[in-house]
C-alpha cells in the first residue's frame, strides 16, 4: 500500500500494468479532519510587510487557478481557512452573535472580519489592478498615485523587492512562478534555494523576508497552535510565530480559546481567531487535497466506511486466498 502526496505523480504515474490487470487498486479516500494552512509567510518584522494592505496586495497576485491547472492537473483546492474543511473554519460562514461579541472592539480595524470568505477568482489583469491600487493606498506609498513599479519607494527607503527563501526544488518551482506573477505589478521577488540546515538556521532567527510555512490544524491541537500566534512569541527565536504577528485581536481570541469550557464556546473562539488571521494577510495561502490518494494491492481488504480522521490502515486485512 502506498499513500501519495504529490499531485503530479498521482496524475501521471499510476497507469501501469499491475493496475490495468487489477492487481493494484487506486482510490481517493475522504479525510474529514481540518486541513490546516500552508503558504508563503510574510515576515512582518520587515518594514516593507508591516502594512496588511501591502500584504493583501501581494497575496492577491498568487494565481492559484493557473498554478493548479498547469502544475498540478487541477487536483488541489485553494485553502481558505487555518482550519479548512471543519466546523472550526470561518470560511463561507457569517459570524454568529458570539463571534461578533468577541470581535466587536476590533471591527473598525478589520473591515472584512465579519464577511463570508468568497475567494478570489478574478483574472490576472484584475488582480494586478487591485494589487497596485491597494499598495498605492498604503501609508508606505510616497503619493496616492504611486504604483508598484520597480521605482516604487516607500518609507522603508527602497524599491519593493524581497527574497523568497526555499529549501526544496518543489518550493523553488512554486516560488519562481509566484515571482513571475509579482513581476506583473513591478515587484521584484528573487528566489533563493538553500539547504535544510541553512533554512532552519535563518528561520529560527527570523532572518528572511518570505518563506514557505505550514500551520497544521486539528480539533485537538487548536489551542496549542493558536497560542503560537500570540504577540509574546513574535520575538522568541525559533518560535512558531514565523510571521511575527503582534495583534491585540489575535491575543484576545487566544485568551477566549483558552478560557472556553464548552465545545460551542471553543468553536466560536477558534472561528473568531481564524477571521482575525485571515484578515491580517500574514500568509499567501497555498492549497490542499480534499482526499487521501492511495494505491494498494487488490489482495488487501478494508472497512467499507472510512473514519473521520482518514483511512485506518491498522484495520485493513489480507483477503483469504481463493480456493
Question: What's the short version?
Answer:
This protein is 34% helix and 16% strand.
Q: In words, what does this structure look like?
A:
This protein is α+β, with helices and mostly antiparallel strands. It has two domains: 2-31 and 299-318, no CATH class; 37-288, Dipeptide-binding Protein, Domain 3 (Dipeptide-binding Protein, domain 3), CATH 3.10.105. The chain has eleven helices and twelve strands. The protein has helices at residues 7-12, 17-20, 52-60, 64-72, 97-103, 124-137, 169-183, 196-204, 222-227, 248-259, 263-280; strands at 2-4, 24-30, 37-42, 77-78, 161-166, 188-193, 210-215, 283-285, 287-288, 291-297, 300-301, 317-318. It has a three-stranded antiparallel sheet. Strand 5, helix 7 (169-183) and strand 6 form a beta-alpha-beta unit. Helix 3 runs antiparallel to helix 6 (124-137), helix 5 (97-103) packs across helix 11 and helix 10 (248-259) packs antiparallel against helix 11. The radius of gyration is 22 Å and the shape is globular. The two termini are 24 Å apart. Mean pLDDT is 83; it is low at 115-120 and 141-157.
Determine the CATH superfamily of the largest domain: Dipeptide-binding Protein, Domain 3
User: Count the helices. How many?
Assistant: 11
Number of domains: 2
Strand content: 15-25%
Helix content: 25-40%
Structural class: alpha+beta
Low-confidence stretches: 115-120, 141-157
Mean pLDDT: 83
CATH architecture of the largest domain: Roll
Helix and strand sequence: EHHEEHHEHHEHEHEHHHEEEEE
CATH class of the largest domain: Alpha Beta
